[in-house]
Write a structure and sequence with these properties.
Layout lengths: L6 H6 L9 H33 L4 E4 L6 E4 L3 E9 L4 E9 L8 H29 L10 H17 L7 H4 L18 E2 L1 H37 L10
């Protein structure tokens, strides 16, 4: 004969009053995953921006006969230096800053300004991510995902606007082009080089980081709503 459990205890705890906690845990892990994704994408975008800014090959000009390529960056340009001891000749490549003789037009200045803004904003985001990982924010305040997401969207926009330099004097009327080797003829149209590709990739990563941050804010709001729902009484006093 099978012994049944106490029917009174079963009546005291109806199944519909038991609150499952699995959904709350799952939603919490979702927003934490998106927040971590924003940190990874943002750090990658910052490193790409830093590399693209430091390099002196944002754009390039290729000789008509494909024998030589001249590179120019936002802040510096590549230059070949000729050294000789009277018998042998050596050529060294290096990055040098633009002289005062180079006319920097408004679009070139705008590209530099956007580059500086993205570098400063990316550094602040990188420091905030490091602070969040090592120390963490106050639980009552929390990480401002919406504000961070909007800032990351602006960084993505400014990173893309750095390409305004393609419509500046650096690309259309470059006085430094072929300065060292006058016998080489270059194409009039400049081309994207490694630095520009870094900025294009950084623009995509900034945008991905912004989406992750905004998604983390939405997922976290759902967690807060569920936690507030747990504080509500399961049965009103009038129903007892």
């Amino acid at each position: 004969m099978v012994k049944l459990g106490n029917c009174d205890e079963a009546e005291r705890t109806p199944p519909e009053l038991v609150r499952p906690s699995l959904g709350l845990v799952s939603t919490a892990s979702v927003w934490e995953t998106f927040s971590f994704g924003a940190d990874v994408f943002g750090a990658t975008a910052f490193l790409l921006t830093l590399i693209g800014s430091m390099r002196c090959d944002f754009l390039k000009f290729t000789a008509i006969n494909q024998s030589f390529t001249d590179h120019f960056g936002v802040w510096r340009y590549a230059q070949w230096i000729r050294a000789t001891n009277g018998e042998q000749v050596w050529w060294y490549a290096g990055c040098f800053g633009y002289s005062d003789n180079v006319v920097i037009d408004s679009k070139w200045k705008a590209a530099r300004a956007f580059d500086a803004i993205v570098l400063i904003g990316g550094f602040l985001f990188f420091m905030m991510s490091a602070f969040s990982a090592c120390i963490g924010f106050n639980e009552k305040v929390g990480r401002p995902h919406v504000f961070v997401g909007v800032c990351l969207l602006l960084l993505s926009l400014f990173s893309g606007l750095t390409l305004l330099i393609l419509d500046s004097n650096l690309c259309k009327s470059n006085v430094l082009l072929g300065q060292l080797m006058n016998d080489i003829l270059f194409n009039d149209q400049c081309e994207l080089s490694t630095g520009a590709n870094c900025f294009i990739s950084a623009t995509v990563f900034w945008f991905a980081a912004a989406l992750c941050s905004l998604k983390a804010s939405r997922s976290k709001s759902e967690v807060v709503e569920k936690e507030e729902g747990l504080d509500e009484p399961l049965i009103n006093e009038d129903q007892i």
